[in-house]
Design a protein that fits this description.
homodimer, 300 residues, alpha/beta, 12 strands, 36% helix, 20% strand
């Protein structure tokens, strides 16, 4: 039995179980690291009767994922008050005395979709969330891409026509990067309404689809994914999918000659198979991986 | 002893040998596929006395790299006259009767840099060429990224301020994608001079550095590489490196908090360790890989 934590900037989701059909779930607001972590630990202990084999954490970031680093498992330079340089994985490991798997929230979601969702047995794909922020997790040759730190896909620069859209952008680091132009808060600031308050025929959506398609076109050219899964609150406005596909097709203009992109875009840019539970279920996969890694270390 | 072919749109480089210090090299212009391939085959046979253990090809593209595909090893939809749907790997395999490794020119160059160049023992890095076109090869978790087809990194979209640079772009598919704005032919068309004819104090270089830095910033956010190697004819104007580093640092604005990006950019964005021979030496690595794969298949 495994424990899972999806740590977001506004809420924590916690789960205990073995697979998507056998999960006890709870959620509560993110407050201080000490109080929030204590709530998570209490839930995991109670629901498992102390019988956990491992815990997985998919966390908001930036986080330190370098296993050789003295601050591995920390949340590092987040703007979120109180959480800077917090030893998140260490706190869970110390309290529960089990192997702890740790990764970004979007990498966890990608793992969840790979194991039980829309990307099962897909060796190379991209999971994106478009919500309070924009983030991406990539699977390449069957493994999560980490590299130097972890991707920060929402912060790519895309064309921005100020004549058509004079909004300066929401990102405090980059202004009009993709997240700055197309995240939920950017939509709210530009239009005076949150995404869920804007009807399907509002001009907001053509602009939103265009910005997201520009991001997707760049990732198609860079990562050559076999599949793109789009999750997050903004994507719950389901009409966006078809608008994005149409725009992406125009942007690529037939250059990348794969049937998936030329004919079958409706099976190439798709919603998550696990709905809004990709992240917490991916954290369960992280727990399982940490457990298996520990077993390999102790057995000959 | 291995054979290697670096197949470019304007010239072929061929080599026979075992490593960068033991290589017989030649080059000749690219004409028809039949004539050019025949010249390559003749050189490889003569220099090896027919004793080759394998041949590697790093080719211009697009190419079909899907080993399960009936057109694996073909050059596919290239605009280059006569080369469409050409069974390149098949022609070499039939003539020489040896295992043939086949990949894009930039993936080969990345392999060369990984094995004997500037990226030795670097698990995650990016090799880019900026010349007649712009292309990239990425190594992720120690393996070349292929995905659905192969990356087409030069074709990402970046911000383009038409007031500052009214040039419409050179790419016949996308107009002002990165390749359309910053390849050698784009520079030549914009300024009326090829890159090598533009002095270091010409305004062309600040614009060129800015476009390339925008590309690099997007790839840092997407691939999180540990190292970026910049090759190709345009980069022989060595002053570009420092201009790109400065611009990249401003674009990232301290968001990606790694020492490599915050302090050591002069060791992060670097020229190839193998000069202009990354591609042909990488093709030698492809030959070696094809030979080893064949051995694994025939031995128990």
């Amino acid at each position: 039995m495994f424990g899972a934590i999806e740590a977001g900037g506004t809420k924590f989701v916690c789960a205990v179980g073995t697979n998507p059909d056998d999960l006890k779930l709870t959620q509560f607001p993110t407050t201080s690291p000490e109080a929030t972590t204590a709530s998570a630990i209490a839930f995991l202990q109670k629901q498992s009767d102390g019988e956990l084999d491992g815990v997985g954490i998919g966390s908001f970031g930036p986080v330190d994922l370098c296993t050789a680093s003295p601050t591995f498992g920390y949340i590092t330079s987040t703007p979120k008050s109180g959480w800077q340089n917090y030893d998140f994985a260490g706190a869970i490991r110390t309290a529960l005395n089990v192997p702890v798997g740790f990764d970004t929230d979007v990498n966890a979601a990608a793992l969840g979709e790979a194991r039980w969702g829309a990307a099962q047995s897909v060796s190379d794909f991209l999971y994106l969330t478009i919500g309070t922020g924009i983030g991406g997790g990539a699977v390449v040759n069957g493994r999560i891409l980490h590299g130097l730190l972890h991707p920060e896909m929402g912060h790519i620069r895309i064309p921005h026509d100020f004549n058509h859209d004079p909004y300066l952008g929401y990102c405090s680091f980059h202004g009009d990067c993709l997240e700055g132009l197309a995240s939920g808060p950017a939509m709210q600031q530009r239009w005076g309404e949150p995404p869920e308050g804007l009807p399907a025929n509002h001009p907001a959506w053509a602009l939103e689809a265009h910005y997201l398609a520009l991001g997707l076109a760049n990732w198609v050219c860079t990562l050559s994914p076999r599949l793109i899964v789009l999750g997050g609150g903004v994507m719950r406005q389901y009409w966006l999918f078809e608008m994005i596909r149409k725009d992406l097709s125009q942007l690529l203009n037939g250059y990348v000659r794969a049937k998936e992109l030329m004919e079958n875009l409706d099976q190439y840019v798709i919603p998550p198979g696990l709905g809004n539970r990709s992240g917490i279920i991916g954290a369960l996969v992280l727990a399982e991986q940490a457990y298996q890694k520990q077993r390999e270390l102790v057995s000959p």
